TrEMBL record:
Gene3D superfamilies: 1.20.58.1460, 3.30.70.2650. Residues 78-167 form the Transcriptional repressor PaaX-like C-terminal domain. This is PaaX family transcriptional regulator C-terminal domain-containing protein. Residues 1-71 form the Transcriptional repressor PaaX-like central Cas2-like domain.
Length: 182
């Protein structure tokens, strides 16, 4: 749990705190009170120190104790429909690419690179927006699992030929081969 208070005269820090906590996967419980799974405590602490925001925040390790059904309450702290839409957009964009690629099919390095870089760029923000909550606290039709499978498949198939392509284009392939030669 992150609890923060920022003076009105330093409003830009308040915006920065909210933005960065959201990027880490925190959900907003009330003004100045944010919650995330305990596994994010170290990342939150590091980020707050690195950005010079730690003077405004108190971090707690907490457990939910009582008074409502937690799955219903959690859905008010995170914008699950917005997160699911991000995953759905990824699946719409890259599901067809994944269907056309298999580890057995030899893929041209330039083609792999053309798919890999935008795919990786779109994916990069999703794990940060996803709070990583236990399945019992997520919507029943949570679409992150399918999107994650598509990402993993594409990463496995596209990353090696993309790297080879970059090495060839930049001339690093020759340097690598020379360094590996006896």
């Amino acid at each position: 749990m992150a609890v923060f208070s920022v003076p009105e005269s330093e409003r830009s820090y308040r915006y920065q705190l909210r933005t960065r906590l959201t990027w880490l996967g925190f959900g907003n419980i009330a003004p100045g009170v944010w919650l995330a799974p305990g596994r994010l405590l170290g990342d939150a602490r590091d980020m707050l120190v690195r950005l010079g925001l730690s003077d405004y925040v108190h971090l707690f390790a907490a457990d939910y104790a009582a008074f409502s059904e937690l799955p219903d309450t959690v859905s008010s702290w995170w914008d699950f429909p917005a997160i699911e839409e991000q995953y759905a957009g990824f699946t719409r964009a890259y599901g067809p690419v994944a269907e056309g690629l298999t580890p057995e099919r030899e893929i041209d390095g330039a083609e792999a690179f053309r798919h890999y870089v935008p795919m990786l760029t779109q994916w990069r923000r999703l794990p940060y927006l996803d709070p990583g909550l236990p399945a019992e606290l997520l919507p029943a039709d949570w679409n992150a699992v399918g999107a994650r499978q598509i990402f993993q498949q594409l990463n496995d198939v596209l990353a090696p030929p993309s790297l080879r392509h970059v090495q060839e284009v930049t001339g690093l392939a020759e340097e690598t081969e020379a360094a590996d030669a006896p």
